User: What shape does this take?
Amino acid sequence: MSPHASDLYQSVVLDHNRSPRCYGAVTGATHRAEGFNPICGDRIVIEVLVTDDSLGVVGFTAQSCALCRASASVMMELISKKSISDAKETAISFEALLKGAHGNPLQLKDSSALAFCSIKDFPARAKCVLLPWRTMLSCLSDQTSVSTES
Amino acid sequence: MTTFAPNGSLNVEALRQEFPVLSRDIRGKRLTYLDSAATTLKPLRVIRAVEHYYRRGTANIHRAVHLLSEEATGLYEGTRTTTQQFLNAKDEREIVFTTGTTGSINLVARSFVKPRLKAGDEILLTCLEHHANIVPWQMVCEETGAKIVVCPVNDDGAVNFEAFKKLITPRTKFISCLWISNALGVVAPIREMIAAARSAGVPMLVDAAQAIAHVPIDVQALGADFLAFSGHKLFGPTGVGVLWGKIEHLDAMPPFLGGGDMIKTVSFEKTVYADAPAKFEAGTPDIAGVIGLGEAIRFVSEDIGFKAIKAHEDHLLSKAEKALGEVVNLRVIGTATPKIPIFSIVMGNIHPHDVGSILDSYGVAIRTGHHCTQPLMARFGVPATSRASFSIYNNEEDVDCLVKALWKTQELFA
Ligand SMILES: Cc1ncc(COP(=O)(O)O)c(C=O)c1O
Assistant: This one.
């Protein structure tokens, strides 16, 4: 079977796209970063309120494709309430997962993030899925903007 | 009567056999190639000509007396004659080979327009322009203090010709406009625009990147000063294109790039430049590309013909318009007439990249994004569209496959 878009647009992904979790601005956010893909114009803003070294409140807004939006929503579920270092590790595991690393890294076990595995067959879209995660990493590293093309 | 239109109407199924890419299967599906506005597929005739040059005829041109070099020079210069006849140019010296439309426009911007500009002067473009017909002008404006003036388009994508006429003023030093929009398929009233430019005495360039494969062009009848196109949008190779310019302009223009082949004599004290067009063709050109372009032009004029192209494309246009009109939640930007079968589609709030990926999995190749026309996208308030563009080798099944895949997309996101 050759890869088909239905592998990419699984029901979990479509659901997160339709009703994204943690969508909206975060009042009193301590960290904020904007991610941009100049090639397709996708734009995402991630805001976090860090308390006691953990991600107390997280939120995002996006003008983007469904994959980017769903990926951001899934990420929100995964990183909310985690410590900064756990959240960063989750992002690293997620990138490894997309690259086809064997086994499910512990951080992502049984999570909706696994729905994005088939992105390896659609390399043109990998940037869409990664943009929220890269933006989150730069947000937590106190950088305020990130581009897929730098 | 041509090879693929023996009785005037195009035999598409026979023609499709000439395009080997069409027999490739894409993710297990038949290929529905609807991205010809980005680049057209290449027929066997062109592929064979390019292959012949590399396999049996490799040599540099204009430089040696050996047989291979003479042959290659003959084929290269033969394309100049073919192009001159194709455009009905007065003189074959008016045909300059470049790297493409972008190369041609930059040459005119640097060599013809920039020396005439001073602060406060204006260059008139339209809102439809491709970035290739915006950025080179911005660069010369930045260096001279001149500025760009943009003719607006109406809500249906048509050039607002009344506004165009008013925007030509004594400050206007050059006008550069496309003939057919790559993003919308809308045809500009180019003859009227050229007439307006001429009566104001302002020189004008026509960006024929899209027009070249869809309408017959007679540069003498058109009366513009320059016309640019790319080989790869005319079933020819990438990396090669043409600048046609009135010979009196080309003769008066300084060269753009210096190097071999563009000189008469060189000493360290002084170099005497060659005459046009050699003056603008410095260095070893894309010889195989130019040879392939000549073959592509012969393919279009001998094997097909613009009458058959127009009839076939008009048929695809009305069939696709009707079928797209039935898809719910779908809007086409750019419905002005006349137009060619290019459809810039917006599907509710489904992002074009999602549309593109889903269509791809059905073997349907379209282009998604801003189509190098960000100002035009901004004019219509969208960051991007999904563009389906048809050409001579597309058939009714292509329309059906497109529409079926769009319906599937709609269902998935419903
Ligand atoms: C209207 C128009 N102008 C200019 C260009 C640039 O052509 P090229 O990239 O071949 O130089 C294109 C190509 O997409 C085009 O459609």
Summary: The mean pLDDT of chain A is 88. The first helix of chain A runs from residue 5 to 8.
